[in-house]
Write a structure and sequence with these properties.
With about 200 residues, the protein is an alpha+beta fold. It contains 5 helices and 7 strands; from the N terminus they run αββββββααβαα. This is Negative transcriptional regulator.
Length: about 200
């Protein structure tokens, strides 16, 4: 988390939208073998928790139940060149969006896991532009049970939300406009759009 308070945001709806839009993140925890990270699809329940699943053999799976952990969602980002400022006597930096969530994790039962898998697959299938959405009922029940046996569902009760929306808020409106234009021209339109929409 960047220490500059200018880069904070306190809009929970924005956090929820980021989780829903990105849909993927990382879960970090320290286990007896040392610090570990898992890369996971993430789903927000909308009431202060995030859910995810791990392969049964993942290094975190056997330790997470009851632990404090950190989940991170990374949004758009882009390199900011000093050449885009009116005064080039600046240093390079990086604009980015990241959301850290810290909380206690509990293991879900099989019904909870199935509900999570249905919710996540339905949401992402709905985004596809062509064809009929895939649904879990297309799987034979015995095969689905066998595949679900290889994964474990978890829910994190988020106790601390730590967002960073580093969008050149510490620069003037003119400088931000030049940086946004530079980012867009160099192939980072998403972070440029956030700079224009979220910073007044």
């Amino acid at each position: 988390m960047h220490p500059n308070p200018s880069f904070r945001h306190d809009d929970r709806d924005l956090f929820e939208a980021l989780i829903a839009e990105i849909g993927f993140g990382m879960v970090f925890a320290t286990v007896p073998d040392g610090p570990r990270v898992a890369h996971v699809p993430l789903h927000s329940t909308g009431d202060g928790a995030v859910q995810f699943h791990l392969a049964r053999g993942n290094a975190l799976t056997k330790h997470l139940d009851g632990m404090m952990a950190l989940a991170v969602v990374n949004g758009p980002d882009g390199y900011v060149s000093p050449r885009w400022y009116a005064d080039p006597a600046q240093v390079p930096t990086w604009n980015y969006v990241a959301l850290e969530m810290e909380g206690r994790v509990r293991r879900m039962d099989q019904d909870g896991l199935r509900g999570l898998l249905e919710t996540v697959s339905d949401a992402h299938e709905a985004r596809l532009s062509e064809g009929t959405p895939w649904t879990m009922d297309k799987m034979p029940e015995d095969k689905l049970r066998a595949m679900m046996g290889g994964i474990v569902g978890f829910e994190m009760e988020v106790l601390a939300w730590r967002p960073t929306f580093k969008l050149s808020q510490n620069k003037s409106a003119d400088e931000r406009a030049r940086v946004a234009a530079g980012l867009e021209a160099e192939g980072s339109p998403a972070i440029a759009e956030l700079m224009r929409r979220l910073v007044s």
